[in-house]
Amino acid sequence: MAPRYTLDQAWEQIRGGLLKIFNHEPMDVHEYMTHYSIVYNYCVASVSSSNAQITMVGGGEGRLMYQAFERCLQDYIRQEFQKIYEVAEEEAQLNNYARLWAKYEFSTKVLDGIFRYLDRHWIKRIIEDELDSNVYRVQTLCMVSWSKVLFEANGINIVRPAMALLKRVADTFVAMGIQYKNEEDSVQNFTDDIEYDSDGIKTTEREQLKIYEDEFQKPLLEDTYLYYKDESNLFCSKDILTYMAKVKERIQEEVTRSNRYFYAQITTKRIKKKVEHAFIEDHLDTFQNAFQNLLKENAFSDLTLMYDLCHLVETAIADLKTGFRTFVIERGNEMMAEIAEADQNDPKVYIDTILKFHERYSSIVQNAFKGDNGFEKDFTDACIDVVNTNCITKKFNSRMGKSAEMLARFVDGVMKKGGNKDNEDTEHIFEKVMHVFRLLKDKDLFQKYYNRFYARRLLLDQSVNDDTEGAMITRLKNACGHEYTHTTQKMFADITKSKELTANFKQQEVGKIKTDANILVLGTGTWPLTQAKTFEVPPVLAEAMSAFTAYYTHQHQGRKLTWLLGQSRGEVTYKATSKMYTFVVTASQIAVLFKFNEAVAISFTALQDELCPHLHPGFSRQGRPPEAPNRR
């Protein structure tokens, strides 16, 4: 039969065992199980007549044992705190407190085993039935008891010596002599289903950290800010490089200290923000003024240091981005203004200046600001401003249209035969073109200019080759979509079909016509061409035109051809001298020149009457040399 105890009898035996556990004295298994049995027997078989009528739920021996255990915990903690309080040296106080906590925390796990029966029966039922909100599970009771004694009105103030010692460390007077915390010191989690809050803390741990946050972290952060606020005011008068070096040093010191001594997962980022607030947010004007000077000096490493310090401080980094955007616009406009007046309408000079400006300041974004997306966006916005609204666009009263035209002319020059005089890789040229293209606000206007010049290259057979033209069109399509290049691709397709059509026509008409004609069939509405005023077509051209019209209408019944003679060119051989000359002339010029096959001299009036009154302006009476009425 199990022994029966009164509370005094039971507790007289248990108290000695608890003190051995708190003091980490040896205890064998037999002694451990003896203490467990005493708690068990008291709770289930007490002879206390004073409590005989009280049920186990809510009262009885379970509550008496619980209350006795709680008193024992608090008495022990008070006695140990008093010993710490009597130590004069602050660092020794902290060391003793840390050792006491380590011993106490380990002891609670052993105590949990001795009071296992009480915990799993009486305490569990009280909590589940919500009979008493001041009753806790055994391990929680140990923590609550520590907290109650720690924050009693006349209790030990461990925060004060901790703050004082931290200040001495920051002043570099001492090195903290307490042991670094280990990873395994973290609060244990007792559930398998782990959930985390916004700080990445397990939800099961958050309540346990409330005292740490309210009683220690809060004054720690306040003291940290005030300390560095005073220090920053002393250092801000020094040059910016010295100041930034001090800021970097102080931030790293606090991060290192936090990781070593505090609950780093929630304290490190908060204490870092306090240092940044004191050194950076409170001195934004200092950073902004220095930032402009560093930009002018192209001091990449110093700019990177400033970026590293400011990029996590929202107000600071926002100011730097705004300052950088303003700087880029100013420097871009200065570079555009440096273009000589004689070169302001030269597309190569114009575009090369933009590219040089873009490359120079893009390197700052990539190198000094580590490709930061925010700086990249502000840089792009600044470039758009410079490209579309600069002193040259304003001068020509075309605003955005001038840059679109100049880029289209630049591409036209590169795409013409012999246009790439520097023999630069075309892929590299295309990349540069697309850099500028993306900065244009009016891309539709660029398309109009591009199509106009593209049509001219195709009609005059000036294009360097089809592959190069196709590569450029593909890049534009990838940038703006299929619809953007629909007309351009249609023109390209017309030329391809025309080459096949002309080849078949020549094969069929071989030996029948005297003129070697290359005829282009262009879709109405696709090409940016206008119908020129007509004139009398010379027989040598009329023969080829008539033959091709017959061939085409036979191949494509129902279609109508409209001849754009004003867009036509031809080669004419001059044989009047011992040396032959070949001229590339327009169709209207061919009509004039062929008249001199019929006569050595002919008056202007006769030419005008025979050909038509709508000759090319170059043959008008006003433009004719006054002393040369007859021409060969």
Automatic annotation (TrEMBL):
Pfam family, one: Cullin
Matches recorded under PROSITE patterns: CULLIN_2
UniProt entry keywords in alphabetical sequence: Isopeptide bond, Ubl conjugation, Ubl conjugation pathway
Ubl conjugation among keywords: yes
Keyword Ubl conjugation tagged: yes
Domain Cullin family profile: 402-610
InterPro entries: Cullin (IPR045093), Cullin-like_AB (IPR059120), Cullin_homology (IPR016158), Cullin_homology_sf (IPR036317), Cullin_N (IPR001373), Cullin_repeat-like_dom_sf (IPR016159)
Protein name: Cullin family profile domain-containing protein
Organism, as annotated: Steinernema carpocapsae
